[in-house]
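User: Here's a protein and a ligand (uridine-diphosphate-N-acetylglucosamine). What would the complex look like?
Assistant: Let me lay out the input and then the predicted complex.
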Amino acid sequence: MLDRLDTTLRVRGGVRLEGSTSTHGAKNAALPIMAAALLAKGPVTLHRVPRITDVSVMWSLLESLGARLRYEGENTVTIDSSNVASFRAPYALVRKLAASFDVVGPLLGRFGRAEVALPGGCVLGTRATDLHEQAFIALGCDVRNQHGYLIAESKHARLHGADIEFRMPSVGATKNAMLAAVTANGTTTLRNVAMEPEVIDLANFLTAMGAKIAGLGTDTIVIDGVAELHGVEYEIIPDRIVTGTLLFCGVVTRGDVTIRRCVPAHVRSVLEKLTECGIEVTTGTDWIRVNAGAITGGTEILTAPYPGFPTDLQPQAVAFLCTAPGTSVVEESIFNARFSYVNELARMGADVRVSMESNTAVVKGVAQLSGAPVEAPDIRAGAALVVAGLAAHGETEIIGLEYIDRGYERLEEMLSDLGGQVQRSVGVTQLVEASGLFETTAYPRVSPASG
Ligand code: UD1
């Protein structure tokens, strides 16, 4: 007999959420900005860095390269890259975090060489790197794949500016190209770039370090390379995906909630969809209030690059639409395998039919979801199960909390600010071998710290 320790989230459904809570700093801005600190000549101090496990992995990666990091406060981190001596990012860390690939650009800028394990695929689909490679080659590198690593090496003492047109906007490739180009010799023009707020936050951070970047907010960025970048103090933008997740948590309970310390413009496409469903949306400079007293129906969603509807809120939107009257249609255009979580929603009584050919989900609203034990297959799908659990009758126990913790800093506390009954539990799962099969029995123990 074997024992395994599992951390789960237990969600008591049917409680109408009310009140207000705040969003934390953006994961997808913090990760490349931490990587960009490799380019700074002096120490970098970052505020509003979320305490999530993806940040811990990037922290370990930067340490493995020789950087020194320390917490100065709950969400303030100082990074000193003066002793960085390695340009190799090992598979052991990259496999835990595809965004580890963000270090390629800074390492090329700093050493003219980078050896970084390829991210390969993840549960959402393939994580191709051809657009990253296109940029590195244009900037003057030899690039090859060797034993699972991307090896990029500048042919000259410094990278040189280039005119690069991407076949599609990629968040990762735009970031990496920008990170490599800011200290290149001459001017780089990047066309058809991603315009996500996190890309712009990275550019603003680089600019604060002394980089020269024009055209932000448009699909063409022009970078004049500078010889070196200096240390800086900088605050990360609010996390729009956390904001959106909290909004869906509120509306799925037909609640009236206010999300503070966020940027309403960053979730405009989401607010438009909520309005279409009959939800009352009010915004201020840094807050959003949603009142879901009268939901009139579902909607149609197509995920798309920013300012389109974010793919990272697609699962949470589907979970909400499972409870909205009528039929909704949700098409995923960014990742090719992002609907696997609907099997878990089905265990809660949801009616969602997925067409693999068109990467589309047809969601029929049901009168009542029912709480069930479910498993989070990835970060945002885990969040979607929380959304569903909040509306369900009874208790939902979500295994796979480690995924949720990759992107949400103490989600249960944000929800408890809104009156949600969500608890983090540690339980022992006994694995019993019987006739070649494993049977599992969980004995959950509620942790006293969580609300
Ligand atoms: C980032 C976000 C992720 C979000 C995604 C889309 C981070 C850490 N992650 O991921 O949460 O879901 O943006 O908003 O910021 N592609 C290629 N070739 C390439 C690069 C990408 O074909 O060279 C494809 C990918 O396979 C994927 C799509 O483009 O299907 C989107 O990728 P990209 O925009 O690069 O997203 P990520 O940076 O991986």
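Summary: Residues 433-451 have pLDDT under 50 and may be disordered.
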